[in-house]
Amino acid sequence: MKRSKSSNAWLAEHVNDHWVQQAQRDGYRARAAYKLLEINEKDKLIRPGTVLADLGSAPGSWSQVAARIVGDSGRVFALDILPMDPIADVQFIQGDFREDEVLAEFVDLLGGRELDLVISDMAPNMSGMSVTDQARSFLLCELALEFAREQLKPGGHFLVKVFQGSDFQPYLQAMREVFTEVVTRKPKASRDRSTEIYLLGRGRR
After folding, report:
1. Which of 30, 97, 137, 176 has the fewest CB atoms in 10 Å of its CB?
2. 156: domain range?
3. Is 108 marked as binding a ligand?
């Protein structure tokens, strides 16, 4: 099947991308690892001993970063509807975290521990129709925020990828109702043309 000009251009950009090449050298599964590494360098969200959930974790680069930092005293729980190859010291659940059965499995794995942090780099399968894609993206963000509100311990933190658009301000306000402080982050590994931005909610009320 012949590729379109746009997909050829994306492939060429991807292959020549500095962060893609760096990920291959460092053993990360995706360039997204460097977004989390940069944010964590600034905000110290993940530390030795941190207990966290990685929503929409596949292919697993954020879980890789987290597992390398939390150490033996921390825990990384990864959830995705897609399969994900195993990562050392990461407990993975394949399923939809909105479903009671999947949530029950997650709670069992937690084993009474409290979550310090929820991270979400989720994005929908893009259709190319910006209005539709933004609506799908913010639905995922809303679901991630609800999960964080219900599962985080008081004072816990939440990092989520969003795309700037008409739903951005209402979502920002929703986060401010859950967290004592909400700040934006745009890591260097985000492509310049991308409207993606990360919102960090600190201190669950």
Report:
1. 176
2. 29-204
3. no
Active-site annotation holder among 5, 42, 161, 188:
161
Q: Is residue 14 assigned to a domain?
A: no
Residue listed under structure tokens 């929503």: 55
Position 21 in a domain: no
Number of independent structural domains in the chain: 1
Q: Is 19 annotated as a binding residue?
A: no
What is the per-residue pLDDT across 18-46, written as a single tens digit (0 to 9) for each?
889 999 999 999 999 999 999 999 999 99
Active site residue 161: yes
Do residues 46 and 204 lie in contact, with contact meaning Cβ atoms separated by under 8 Å?
no
121 is in an annotated binding site: yes
pTM for the structure as a whole:
0.90
Q: Is residue 37, in this structure, part of any structural domain at all?
A: yes
Phi, psi of 189 (to 5 degrees): -75, -5
CATH of the domain at 41: 3.40.50.150
Cβ distance 200 to 157 under 8 Å? yes
